[in-house]
Write a structure and sequence with these properties.
CATH architecture: 2-Layer Sandwich
CATH superfamily: SCP2 sterol-binding domain
Largest sheet: 2 strands, antiparallel
Order of helices and strands: EEEHHEH
Number of strands: 4
Number of domains: 1
Radius of gyration: 14 Å
CATH class: Alpha Beta
Structural class: alpha+beta
CATH topology: Nonspecific Lipid-transfer Protein, Chain A
Distance between the termini: 35 Å
Length: 78
Amino acid sequence: MLSVNNGVLNYTKGKLVDAPDATLTASRAVLGEIVQGEATWKDKFAAKEALVEGRMEKLLELLSLLDPFDLWFNIVTP
């Protein structure tokens, strides 16, 4: 389960919600392509490689809140 609380994206393994706003189904490979900039969610939805059950607008709202970042960012700087 993913949720946003106080501007922080949280993941809870093994927890399910009775009535989620949206459920996204995609393979790890699809997620990898998106993170690496090789594809977009729009591409994957059109190709039926990513599926959404529920309220698509809620998923799009969540995705719009995510900041882009460089894949090789420094975790610790001198």
